Amino acid sequence: MTMDGNAGETAPLVLHVIHQLATGGLENGVINLIDRLQESEFRHAVVCIESASDFRQRLKRQDVEIIALNRSEAGIWRVRRQIHSICRRLRPAILHTRNMSGLDALLPARLAGVGYCIHGEHGWDVDNLQGQKLRPALLRRLHSPFVDHYITVSKHLERYLIERVGIAPARISHICNGVDVDRFTPAREKPIGLLPAHLRAETPFVIGTVGRIQPVKDQAVLVRAFAELIRESPDLRLRLAIIGDGPLLPALRELACSLGVADLTWLPGAMANVPDVLRLFDLFVLPSLNEGISNTILEAMASGLPVVATNVGGNVEIVDDGRWGRRFESGNVLQLAHILGEYVRDPGMRSVHAAAARRAAVERFSLDTMVAQYRAIYEARLSHERLCRA
What we know:
This protein is of the alpha/beta class and 390 residues long. It has 15 helices and 13 strands. Helix content is 41%, strand content 16%. A seven-stranded parallel β-sheet has the order 3-2-1-4-5-6-7, with helices on both faces. A six-stranded parallel β-sheet has the order 10-9-8-11-12-13, with helices on both faces. Helix 8 (219-232) crosses helix 13 (333-345) and helix 11 packs across helix 14.
């Protein structure tokens, strides 16, 4: 995509720097933000420290330049020189970096004359689930002089920046992820036809999750809990759907086979029609080891699904235990199996929690609310700049 020559070019440019543009919650949030901000308000460009996949096609706006730098091949110093050159060419009013990869853009942008830098923290790596490692905290601290303002998607991440990295609270804003409550809606009729034919029999109860199949998401614990529930109650008409691709998908399929539940489990890889997939589910589960604010939880809530999630990170902030979902300790197979069984056997509780989940998504976590908060931060900077010039 390239910049076009319309009047929107007079709008200030926000340059977003992310690790890669691929299927994921952070990436989805960036695209939603760009699409929801009017062209007359802001222009945008996206720099990917690594690569940009077909996920870029989700962008509705046609005026967004996307640049992939492929750091793993080019090397960090070449990437830094490229970022410096990009900033000199595009002259962004605001640089908005995200997570560890984004730190690499801060010094080159400052040297190129970028006047305002925002840094966002959106989640945790599997090898640093509680932010306990020294090196990532030290790198964030060393880069902090180049950051004017921080944004965290969860209070958990905000506490990390304050207590571990040493960032003053006044420099941090907390903006929760938002969900498109018009796109993600409860099912009027369950799209059972999405399931393979052999899994459709007898109106099954579908337990499902959506997400990249990687260690931090720990879908293996869900497979094990599902197998435990089947072992305890073989008469229940249950199906397990795990939607997503990733390096651990073959191992997850092997695990389902070894536990004897492969014939009740659907692992199709990534699917584009996530709203329809969620309408197929009766219950949503997120078994991850840690989270910022999970977009898939919010999407499930907007779809009118009770949510079962681990008692970690941002999950604690959005899953109200006993009101529209339940929380369990990460890795605890028996606890998860017990909670799943409660939902399967108690349609009244399911119905109450489903309605409460949808209501909370609309009232607390709408995409419009999220976009308005980002807009306010961007506009505050631009208003300050105009006052300084006056």
